[in-house]
């Protein structure tokens, strides 16, 4: 069942999302060669706590960290480590969420580490564009799969592939609510969108094949062919006036 949010609920989700946006911007400022993913995790937790927020991922289904840090061929759920030192030319997805006053916010960015290759830059740009196109479909009266199709249609024209195993989701009083939002599929299917629906829309796009595998840590998903992957995410409310991106920041 999709839970429709009141205006008051949406504003509480926005409050959580604004903290997520501020923390991600702090991470953008510090991502550089020589920084460890452990450092990024510590900073995210500290910055959240400064703002009175509780990191959403830490302890969620046993995940031990506040931040997911996925480097290069890691798709999602990368685990921070003191041994994982960012190198010039890497790309790193930082996925972060918090809970504030009982409501969740969630967003992700893929950031360049120093100067990156043209191919890596292109993958990140196209993935971010796909998110923007998906958000544009979060309109009253559209169908859920219109969001999904927008991602697939955009990235495949560049020769990229969509990860099937992980999807976007509803969000509110729980981090993951109904519905699931794949990043692929034909348009015009699924439930009609209504004002009050709030979604975490998150394309995960691979440079090569769509297939992934999970590492021995039980969390980190990597591309099956070792090629790059990018991930962007926003929390978005469907309103009578169009999509309201709650995690854009101030």
Produce a short descriptive summary.
Helices cover 28% and strands 26% of the residues. The chain is α+β, with helices and mostly antiparallel strands.
Q: Structural class per helix/strand content?
A: alpha+beta
Average pLDDT, rounded to a whole number, is 98
Order of secondary-structure elements: HHEEEEEHHEEEEEEEEEE
Number of helices: 4
Query: What percent strand?
Result: 25-35%
**Strands of the largest sheet, in order across it?**
8-7-9-14-15
Fraction of residues in H or I helices: 25-40%
Give a description of the structure.
The chain is of the alpha+beta class and about 250 residues long. It is built from 4 helices and 15 strands. The protein has helices at about 5-30, 35-50, 120-135, 145-155; strands spanning about 55, 65-70, 75, 90-100, 105-110, 160, 170, 175-180, 200, 205, 210-215, 220-225, 230, 235-240, 240-245. It has a 5-stranded antiparallel sheet with strand order 8-7-9-14-15. Strands 1, 2, 4 and 5 form a 4-stranded antiparallel sheet that branches. It starts with 6 loop residues before the first helix and ends in a 5-residue tail after the last strand.
